[in-house]
Amino acid sequence: MASKQQIEREALETYHRFVGVRDQIDVGERSWEDLADFFTEDGVYIDPAWGRQETREGIRQFFVESMAGLTGHGWSSPEQWTMVDGHRLVSQWDQVMGQKPDGGDWRIPGLSILYYAGDGLFCYSHDYLNMTYLGETLKAMQWMPPPEFNMPPRKPDWRTHLPAAWAHLPDAFK
After folding, report:
1. Domains present along the chain, CATH in parentheses
2. How many helices (H) and strands (E) does the chain have?
3. Which position among 20, 134, 154, 167 has the lowest Cβ density within 10 Å, counted as fewest Cβ atoms?
4. Which tens digit of pLDDT belongs to each residue from 32-81?
């Protein structure tokens, strides 16, 4: 069995690769489909607008559908800080939604909680954004969605539990 320090090192290294791919996506060098490869086959991803997405292929489809009309339109997610405790990783990133007329960024802080499953894969990710602030910012921006934009589902699945195979991870190293 790997030590807590080994797991934390692997989780952080994996997350840095994940962020690297996300950064490449933001500048058009990679596709959102590629980010799903960081999740286990039974992975879960919870988005603050789209809700729970299950399985690697479900996550892949979600990334493609949910990011249509956002990537390449000035949106990006620069990483601010990351901390890890055993299998758990928390990161703070900003949702940058373009540039203000004064040259500053339209920016909303976000958090992600991820669970590292080993072998360079996460089994769970839960993103948090203040959706009221996001809506107010979009209104202030006078943002109009491009034609390829997809609205989130009307009634997302808000269940937050880990995949069954990984339910033991919150108790690891206690």
Report:
1. 4-171 (3.10.450.50)
2. 3, 7
3. 154
4. 999 999 999 999 999 999 999 999 999 999 999 999 888 776 788 999 99
